Amino acid sequence: MGILVMEDVGYSSLDMSGVLEDIENGKIRLPNFQRDFRWERSNITELIISLLNGYPIGVLLFWDVRGVGKENRLASRLFEGVDKDKEELSSEEYLVLDGQQRLTSLYQLFYKEFVKTKGNREIKFFLDLNEIQNKKIDDCVKSYSKKDIQRKRLDQPEEQMKNHLLPLNIILSDKLHDWIRGYMKYWPSKEGSGNADEATKMASFNKEFLSKGKPIHNLKNYKLHVIKLEYRDLDAVATIFEKLNTTGLPLNIFEILTAKFYGTMNLRNKWEKTKKDYDSIKSFTKDEKDNSLAILILKAILLKKSIEENDKSLECKRKNLLNNLTSEDIEKYWDKCAEFLHRSLNMLKGNYGCPSLRYLPYSTILVPFSLAMDFIENKLPPERRKAAYRKLERWYWASVFSERYDSGTDTKSKTDINEIIEWINDDRKIPEAIREFDIRFIDLEEVTRGARFTGILNIIIKRGAKDFLTGKSIGVLISDKPREVNVHHLFPKKWVKEENKKLRDSILNKTLLGSETNRKIGDGMPSTYIRDIMEYNREIIEDLKGHLIPPDEFMRDDFDGFIKKRKELIIREIERLVEPVKGFT
What we know:
Blueprint: E1 9-15, H1 16-24, E2 28-31, H2 41-53, E3 60-64, E4 76-77, H3 86-89, E5 94-98, H4 100-111, E6 115-117, E7 121-128, H5 129-133, E8 141-145, H6 146-152, H7 157-162, E9 165-167, H8 175-186, H9 198-210, H10 215-220, E10 223-229, H11 234-244, H12 253-260, H13 267-277, H14 279-283, H15 292-308, H16 318-324, H17 327-351, H18 366-379, H19 382-401, H20 409-425, H21 432-435, H22 450-462, H23 474-480, E11 485-489, H24 501-504, E12 510-514, H25 515-521, H26 526-534, H27 540-546, H28 551-555, H29 559-578
Parallel strand pairs: 2-5, 3-10
Antiparallel strand pairs: 1-10, 2-4, 3-5, 6-7, 7-8, 7-9, 11-12
């Protein structure tokens, strides 16, 4: 991004009324990566109370786009509730990068009859003048649903005045003066008398509610604190946003590119169709908002372009995605990269003991893995594919157990896919991941989480390990009822000596079991619960071996001997996966 210079960032205090007017006129808009408005009624109430008290509501982040070229522009949209005609009548001058929830709330409060809250509920907000008069500012904001407004007839000014409820949506408009006049007629001034002239009544109201320092004065004259970015480079703006935004969800590259390419293609629709077409991609997606696999497809597209066009300058870093990826690239390669991501996930589920997202050591490893599969299937004759897949398998396990993808994943993705392809074509060109892998540096006693931990769970599933009690395959149980399978201690916590506390929570003392089995085991020692289980499962000793559990030491409750022997078994299994087998390099 380069060095941040003060000339590129402006700090301003702007009249809230002016900012909201610019929103109403379409001069201030939202980029398309911004999420929908989702605030609750309580959030809006707290915001109003802050304005009434003159408290800060946080800094807003605007991008000044008046001098930004079309190639670096993001597609924009009007704030929710702004008349769509404003899109054509004016062009945006600023895009709001941080502050959408606050500004949408304020805009709808002061410009619309109702505020649309979370769940698309329509709520109208009022200020209770009696509560303000009694200095109960925290209790003065009242809100009602559309149905309640109709039932209580609070859409009628007279009913509002009777209940001392001043509508928020008229406070910045010309209607305020007329409402106050009506209110003072309905409720004579304290001085006196209903016979006081209008000027006296208005002066009384202003003194009570609108004079300097009073809550409604604070609200009407509130100033918003704004940081204005004047960067012309899209990558710089995205980076600054990520650094400064601490209150909302951070931007990600998918959302930025969705906005960037909005005029030429709908990236979000493409992603939704991919999830619909490929069940494995959908199943490895956390929820509806999760687009992390879509980002991996975009990275794979850039690397595929690099390979096919022999462009060594292309990596899959965010800067490359922003500056080097075109809508034409996406149209050309998306379907193929999505297909091989799908096939990779199926391969991992079927052959690598990875049945779901929870059991994936690294999501980022899918980029080189899927591109390697694409190469094997489309560039090699059938008779060469078995050997190539064995090489891919060795690279994969070496990467997992060396924790290669803990950092620098984008650079490693490019290095690795090039090295895998070279290795497939030439046995002498062994990839760095294989060359540098050394089983002696894996300290399984220390492994309590992370890629190595997950990798060993994968091995257990891959071996076809079965649940102790039911004898059902762990992999099948995860597919059927994923929440019913969890990692459990083999030697119970309470029985492991304090000096062995580290080993107690190590992967060496854990395996995958069904919840029913775990309840059956309870806090018992292996010698006790395995003998109990024998009544239900005569094959339990063989089933223990599937979990890489040494039966003799385990059944003797020999914790130290068990840990030592199980480590040997797991290390041997890792070596088998990473080292060449006879007939293959």
